[in-house]
């Protein structure tokens, strides 16, 4: 399978189609059931989804074309920092695409953000509503963290190994410009290395020190770690 991905070291979201959608309520229910934790149910995650997004309704005067149905209840006016809006370009082919989908038996809905993906809808994009340029995890969450928190970014660095003391994660071995060093965790190690990769050679992939099974890729490593240590998530 060919799977295109970003070469960015910090924010994989810098390469994607900019479609803002959320998983189905059923998929989150399956997740909650699998781990025995109702926190993963769609209704319980929705407040956090809303909290992350700053939504701007479609600007039909600028965009042109007919009104766009959208789900204002899927957003919180106080949300942010990720900007979500509709492109200001109306695609002239839209009515024909709509007719073709309806003829094929699909139902038009008012969005793809409220736990149901059955049917078709016009999608909101992760875009700055004024400049109409991409808003990414770096330009939104990353910038906000740099400007208003003490969070430190290690640019151009690779996490090589999670360090364990018994079954508790206590730090990370990191490499920057060929130099390897250890970052100690005050509270916990949060793994957010993405489910699909790996640009690195197998011998360079992230390894969990003290765990007996070697790591094939981050996803299986992540699953193994969740079972082994509650301090890793
Ligand atoms: C072509 C494409 C189009 C997509 N379009 C959309 C879309 O329109 N809408 C949508 O919602 N989703 C889309 N997706 C999916 C979306 O991009 C992913 O679901 C999302 O980026 C996953 O976020 P993540 O933080 O889990 O992982 P990632 O975004 O993969 O981030 C993980 C980051 O960790 C870094 N990393 C990995 N290992 C290490 C290490 N050892 N040390 C240091 N850093 C490391 C990686 O380089 C990466 O930057 C698309 C994906 C692709 C590939």
What attributes does this structure have?
single chain; about 230 residues; alpha/beta; 2 domains; four-stranded mixed sheet; two-stranded parallel ribbon; 6 helices; 6 strands; globular; disordered C terminus; binds flavin-adenine dinucleotide
Written description of the protein model:
By secondary structure, the protein is of the alpha/beta class. The chain folds into 2 domains: 25-148, no CATH class; 154-233, no CATH class. Helices cover 25% and strands 14% of the residues. The chain has helices at 25-35, 42-52, 60-63, 94-103, 138-148, 218-228; strands at 53-55, 82-84, 157-165, 168-176, 179-184, 207-208. A 4-stranded mixed β-sheet has the order 5-4-3-6, covered by helices on one side. A two-stranded parallel sheet has the order 1-2. The protein starts with 24 loop residues before the first helix and ends in a 5-residue tail after the last helix. Bound molecules: flavin-adenine dinucleotide. Residues 4-6, 8-13, 16-19, 21, 158-159, 192-194, 197, 206 line the site of flavin-adenine dinucleotide.
